[in-house]
From TrEMBL:
One of its GO terms (molecular function) is ATP hydrolysis activity. SUPFAM superfamilies: P-loop containing nucleoside triphosphate hydrolases (SSF52540). Gene3D superfamilies: P-loop containing nucleotide triphosphate hydrolases. PANTHER family: ATPASE DOMAIN-CONTAINING PROTEIN, DNA-BINDING PROTEIN-RELATED. It comes from the Bacteria. This is ORC1/DEAH AAA+ ATPase domain-containing protein.
């Protein structure tokens, strides 16, 4: 089973993204994909490695890592500058010491420093350009929907856009996120600094070829191999999440399972205990819980009179369409999405499955 746990390379998709950015360097690219479908792995491994092989510096930043995105971005770029400086084989020799026992090195020029983090971002890139003349930088910004939520998010986006405009052709900008609504608000709201900055694509999820590759070693160890079509259907049932599928192969290896597809939900309940899902659900407000329960039953117009009347009956208090929308947009990005005007959907697969359980308390 060791082979099942190795990273599944996707050189074709990495090449697609890099070529897209190199062909249109004056346009950023926004990519949406739900959480845990392999975006981060592709960025940090396939795409970063491809860029480095072609002489392009690569920098990955996850905006979920800090509540201060601009500070995080500056820190990561400063780290890249430091690595570039340390990578220089030697500085120009200033003078040889007597008897050849030592040398004096010409001091490196001091880097410009600004108290304004937006200006400092440009200073850092200028320094990188001095250390690596003409360098192109592939800047991969993950979970960018956090910029919509963070207090300093708009300031961060202004700094990113200014950097992109200043160093056009040198800065290749790839922006990804797990909230379609968040990305749409980031690039589709004309009042935001990021309006119109990026073209958009949906992330290409792993398919049957991934299942075949990961199931090969697994099936070799079985007296009766499981058909790839069956395993692929199971992979679809877990919404193409590669880590879940690899863990499911281990589950199948140690458990006697007759219904491979039907056992997916049993497996997911062991992997994501329902008590944890329940506790998270109970931390939401009563209005949020009520509306989520309605959404789990199927599509509904959250601003319709029928929906408001039903929510009011459940809560025992009147509600407004604006109040319902605010309750939904206040939920974490990994819980709810707003892919179209007036339409909301639950994107947390475990929460959705739990809400649909007929016997839940």
């Amino acid at each position: 089973m060791n082979g099942a746990f190795s990273i599944y390379p996707r050189p074709g998709l990495a090449r697609h993204y890099l070529d897209r950015l190199l062909t249109s360097p004056n346009r950023a690219l926004s990519v949406f994909g739900p959480r845990q479908v392999g975006k981060t792995t592709l960025l940090q491994h396939d795409l970063a490695a491809l860029a480095e092989r072609e002489g392009i510096a690569a920098l990955y930043v996850d905006f979920m890592a800090s509540s201060n995105a601009l500070e995080l971005l500056n820190a990561r770029l400063a780290q890249l500058v430091h690595e570039a400086r340390m990578g220089l084989s030697k500085r120009r020799v200033k003078a040889a010491k007597a008897a050849g026992f030592g040398i004096d090195l010409e001091p490196a020029p001091s880097d410009p420093v600004s108290a304004d983090p937006g200006v400092q971002l440009q200073n850092a890139f200028s320094t990188l350009n001095r250390l690596r003349p003409g360098v192109q930088l592939l800047l991969m910004l993950d979970e960018a929907q956090e910029l919509v939520r963070q207090q300093e998010g708009e300031r961060t986006m202004k700094a990113i856009r200014a950097l992109f405009n200043t160093f056009q052709g040198q800065l290749l900008l790839l922006i990804t996120g797990s909230s379609r609504e968040g990305l749409l608000r980031l690039f589709g709201d004309r009042h935001r600094a990021s309006f119109g900055l990026a073209d958009h694509e949906d992330f290409q999820r792993l398919g049957r070829d991934f299942v075949e590759a990961k199931a090969a070693a697994f099936n070799k160890q079985r007296r009766q191999p499981i058909e790839i079509d069956t395993l692929y259907t199971a992979f679809q049932a877990m919404e193409h999440r590669p880590a879940d599928f690899i863990a499911y192969l281990s589950f199948l290896a140690i458990n006697e399972v007759r219904d491979v597809v039907g056992s997916v939900q049993v497996f997911l309940q062991t992997r994501y205990p329902t008590e944890a899902v329940r506790e998270r659900f109970l931390r939401f407000t009563p209005l949020q819980r009520t509306v989520l329960t309605l959404l789990a039953e199927g599509p509904c117009q959250v601003a319709s009179k029928a929906t408001m009347d039903r929510v009011a009956r459940e809560l025992g208090a009147p509600v407004t369409a604006g109040g319902i929308r605010h309750a939904l947009t206040s939920l974490p990005a990994d819980v709810i999405a707003n892919p179209a005007r007036g339409h909301y959907e639950i994107v947390d697969a475990q929460l959705l499955a739990w809400l649909r359980e007929a016997d839940r308390e």
